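G., the chain you wanted modeled:
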Amino acid sequence: MTRPSPPVALASGAEFDAIRAMVARWGNRAVGIGDDAAVVQVPRGDALVASVDSSIEQRHFRGDWLNAREIGYRAVTAALSDLAAMAAQPLGILVALVLPESRRAEIEALADGIGEAVTAAGTVVLGGNVTAGEALSLTTTVLGHAFAPLTRSGLQAGDALYVTGHFGGPGAALASWKSGHRLSDVHRERFARPVARLREARWLADRGATAAIDISDGLASDLEQLAVASAVGMDIDLAAVPLVEGVNGPIAAAASGEEYELIIGARSPMDTAGFERAFGIPLTAIGRAMSPDGGVIFRQGAERVAKPRGYDHLSR
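Predicted structure as tokens:
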């Protein structure tokens, strides 16, 4: 695969000054910046995998919760997590930035956070757009490739269901901010510094995963999304879900949004010990896909519980 050409020379003006400032922070992590569109070659035989995600101030974050570097990192990581859900290898990202006058001094810190996210993912910035506006927002388009992408519709009745990582930290951080209670450093880190499980997803796909979804709206909500897409039911034991230290039980963990861990389905047992050796986080069996007749059942051990409420992007 060949990479796009080096950055193109830009004219004068405030918009181009902002772009130059960001490109200077990214160095060789930005390629081909300056043309009207990015040109990316996809390896022969692979499918192009693309997604877009927006992060808007007062909706997805607040300036008194996160600094500019964390805002840039988190916005791009959230978008890259969609590639992880498809077991795709990133090719690059495009970032559309709405930058209020009050935030212009933070352009380099935002760029540094974006740069950290692409470095962690082993990818590059291909281009984007900068405009003025009333509220800070970042819209990230991610491009990747995969020979056989994982989808939400690949589950069959009988498949085992697994999750990566630990749960509940982002929800606990949000609850602390809203209530004014003391914020745990661990919970804040899970909110501010999520990880797109890109390498983990490809490892799992290579070892027989049949379906996947990343967890942005809450574990319970995204399990239901996976069940609907695959036309199956599920039997889920929330007591099996690994918790971040200090989280108030599995119901809170299953409702916590913006985790960016993965739910994976598999026909055969997965090598959970090998996964933990490779990545330093657990891979945990939490249930099984069933006939669609029974719907999605949530339990804590033997006791059936109501579905924990997740995040709704259009609720207030």
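The two ends are 45 Å apart (CA to CA).

Shout if anything looks off.
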